[in-house]
Amino acid sequence: MTILSIESSCDETAVAVTRDGRTILADEIFSQADIHALYGGVVPEIASRNHLKVIAKLADAAIARAGIAKRDIDAVAATNAPGLIGALLVGLNFAKGAALSLGVPFIPVHHLRGHIAANYLAFPELAPPFLAVVVSGGNTIIAAVRDYTDIEIVGQTRDDAAGECFDKAARAMGLGYPGGRALDDLSQSGDDTRYTLPRPVIDGAPLDMSFSGLKTAVVNAIHNAEQRGETLDKPSLAASLSRAVSDVIVPRTIAAARDYGLNAVAVAGGVAANSRVRRDLTNACRRAGLALYLPPLSLCGDNAAMIGAQAYYEYVAGNVGDMSTNAYASRGI
Q1: Phi-psi group of 269: left, alpha or beta (phi > 0 → left; psi -120 to 50 → alpha; rest → beta)
Q2: How do strand 140-147 and strand 150-156 relate by DSSP bridges?
Q3: N or C: which terminus of the chain carries fewer CB neighbours within 10 A?
Q4: Quick one: pLDDT band at residue 181, thresholds 50, 70, 90?
């Protein structure tokens, strides 16, 4: 089954062509990072307008790169939740229009389900059940994937996402936007014990997480150094933050796998590219005897191939949309 898929939930416009949920035929991405860097973060209206400018050209480019004709497309899919509502609507309405004109089914896909499905593209042997850890700029969840469309959140952040914590800390340190990669690079030469940062615990919910206080602690460390006229050790602060985020995520991942009787862990989302998180998860899963699936960096961030992968399994399960399908800024998985 050949699926044309669209991802436009934030500031990347992406169009892909995938086959049977496991093979990428084409994956085109237009990044707006340089545009939003001028403002220190994503401006929703600007994101939406730029999606409109490039989405049709990207679709044509993806179809051409895949070496197929439009008549070869069996379905069209798009992210419909969660995300910036204006940005989502651009991709959703383009996809619905394409499906209508081609006379093929339209498949709405949850963004986080898409991130999990990125692992199906990277690891053809992976199949449920397994534990998924989705760590991105807007979401941080731990989920039990019992089947391709039977997914239960068993742990999640109560406030900020881990990726937001990284980005806001990086901006406060003057590393620009998006700051996750710059912060990761900077942390390589730092002492991760130099700054004492919190590891929040949620009373009565041991698998849930919180990153708001951690973000505030980093900002306070920066301001305190400025007020005292001290030189901020930026590499060590970046390393201490990376360690703290990992210390929140990794033990809960291992505990969730044990509690739910799952022997494999699949990681997804932009923060899955963080070197400290990847290293600590690798070591912890090895010690616990768990199989670990870490997708390549190209599939960690937002992309349309992951949406096409999950769309295949949504179609098989009968989860097909129609022309009345809407977008949602926030919606459960």
Answers
A1: left
A2: antiparallel
A3: N
A4: confident
Q: Is 138 found in the same domain as 107?
A: no
pLDDT at 40: 78
Question: pTM of the prediction?
Answer: 0.93
Q: Strand 12-19 relative to strand 23-31: parallel, antiparallel, unpaired?
A: antiparallel
How far apart are the C-alpha atoms of 266 and 310, rounded to whole Å? 15
134 and 280, same domain (yes or no): yes
Q: For residues 268 and 142, is the Cβ–Cβ distance under 8 A?
A: no
Cα dihedral value 226, 227, 230, 233, nearest 10:
-40
**Tokens standing for residue 97:** 């229009």
160-175 mean pLDDT = 90
Same domain membership, residue 75 and residue 170: no
pLDDT digits (tens, 9 = 90+) for 87-108: 999 999 999 999 999 999 999 9
Q: Identify whether 166 is part of a domain.
A: yes
224 φ, ψ (degrees, to nearest 5)? -65, -40
Query: The domain spanning residue 135 has which CATH number?
Result: 3.30.420.40
157 is in which domain, residue-wise?
Answer: 128-294
Q: Are 55 and 91 in contact (CB under 8 A)?
A: yes
Q: Is the pLDDT of residue 271 over 90?
A: no
Asked if 85 and 64 sit in the same domain, the reply is yes
Question: Is the same domain home to 80 and 188?
Answer: no
With a cut of 80, say whether residue 178 has pLDDT above it.
no
Please give the share of the chain, as a percent, with pLDDT higher than 70: 100
Instruction: Pull the structure tokens for residue 246.
Output: 């990992």
Q: Answer yes or no: do 149 and 273 share one domain.
A: yes
Q: In whole angstroms, what is the distance from residue 331 CA to residue 333 CA?
A: 7
- Distance between CA 261 and CA 153 in Å, rounded? 15
| Together in a domain, 169 and 250 | yes
Asked if the model's pLDDT at residue 82 lies above 80, the reply is yes
Grade residue 249 by pLDDT with cuts at 50, 70 and 90.
Answer: very high
Sign of the torsion angle spanned by Cα atoms 312, 318, 323, 326: negative
